[in-house]
Amino acid sequence: ARTEHGRQCCGGEVGILLEPLAVAPCVALFGMGHVGHELARILRPGGLFLFASDIPDYVEWTLEHVSDQPAFELLSRSGEPFENWVRTRYEAKAIREGRTPAYLRFRRRG
User: How far apart are CA 64 and CA 2, in angstroms?
Assistant: First the structure.
């Protein structure tokens, strides 16, 4: 249902993890879900949405739901980090524990 603060259809909560990254100016969002609607609204045409996760179900869920958004096109799916990627401590822990992250690149159409 549309509200004055955006769209939230499940009535649940949204948790956001903010972790400092030493990278070029960008927006780092950890999570997708309903954030995708607002991301599509605020990201400039041609802007990139970079997604990384070591949880296969979450990667597949994101591929399915972002692909359903006409505003985005999938550019790549890789097992290698993005150029100039700064690993987070959570990513380093996943790799130490034998989980392989997936890296998805989407572009905002328009």
Answer: 22
